Amino acid sequence: MTARRPSFLLLAAFAAAVGAGCAPRTAYLWGDYDSVLYAHYANPQDSERYLERLGQIVQKAEVEKDKVPPGLYAEYGYALFEAGRLDEAITYYKKEREQWEESQIFMDKMIRNTQRLKENRPGPAPGGELPPPAGGTPGAAPAGEAR
Amino acid sequence: MSHRGLLLPLVGFLLLSLGCAAAPPKKDYTAFRAANPRSILVIPVVNNTTNVEAPGLFLSTLPIPVAERGYYVFPVNMVRRVLEDEGLSDPNLVHMADTARLCNLFGADSVLYVSIEAWTAQYMVITTQVTVEFDYVMKDGKTGDTIWKEHKKVVYAPQQQNSGGSPLAALVAAAVQAAVTKAAPNYMPLARQANAEVINTPGVGLPAGPRHKEYGKDPGSAK
User: Fold this and answer.
1) Is the model's pTM score more than 0.90?
2) How many beta-carbon pairs below 8 A join chains A and B?
3) Of A7, A8, A133, which is closest to B86 when you measure between CB atoms?
4) CATH numbers and ranges of domains, chain B
5) Where are the domains of chain A?
6) What number is the ipTM of this complex?
7) Pick from B119, B111, B93, B103: nearest CA to B149
8) In Å, what is the CA distance from A89 to each residue of A55, B63, B159, B187, B197?
9) Half-sphere exposure of A143 toward its Cβ, with a 13 Å CA cutoff?
10) Side-chain half-sphere of A127: how many Cα atoms within 13 Å?
11) What is the pLDDT of residues A60-73, one digit of tens each?
12) Domain A33-126, architecture per CATH
């Protein structure tokens, strides 16, 4: 009995060490981000539910500011955009840009585009507008570009 | 009794060491170090299987492990939609597009190209074998050169539980397991496992990025 105890203690210590090395806690608060993404991919018509679930993740992650995952604000902003809520979309694009300097070029384009759309079309605008490619020719003429 | 006391910790050790696989041969990270990307554009995955659900399922598993490795990951759904508006709704077209042009569009440092090579459930008499297999290639946004790549195959066949030595009990247990797997073969844990191994294995995985505390310390990181 006494001879067995050390082996268990050793195992426990080893397990703790390995556990700490193999399964670190995540840097960001992801919530159920992956299943939300998939649900929307599988059923794009369910956009209201997608917007709502993304909003919940944002809300929970925002409790600790540096735990908001990269891309989350932008993803939520785009869902707002698709729902025609352009002002809120811009707000979240700006949040993304502020938190992640790596997103600046992309967010600048999206903000510019959304603002242009807002000026030209007062009503809610469903569908995606795209930023013009840098120096390239757009593959398909986007609705937002055609005034 | 005395056997069991030894066996239990031993099995424990084996299981634990499986979790942290032994370090495979080292990779050349010269190109990666030179590119030193801070951000990664994860584009829609190419599906080389007949399973129509696979690309959506798999794409959704990618942002978390890549971002947790210390990189800015562009919002995958938004990126997919913007690419669609660009006339690139077919992932094959996205993968064939010029890397530098893709990166310019989003201001990305690099692109992660992933393709699904296998996503199958093979139904055998009393069990189901689930297989996933992926190709990962990362390219530098400036040069278009490949700076990192990996290939991963994960196979899962439910293990037969040893139910007290009765062959009949074992058979019943296996049949139940097969029925469950058959109803909904669960690929997601396997896909996550493949990603985790590919991204996090020291010496071959994705080097820690600028937002990771190991940045500059692990073998592949730019200093």
Assistant:
1) no
2) 128
3) A133
4) 24-200 (3.40.50.10610)
5) 33-126
6) 0.79
7) B111
8) 12, 21, 49, 34, 36
9) 11
10) 10
11) 999 998 999 999 99
12) Alpha Horseshoe (1.25)
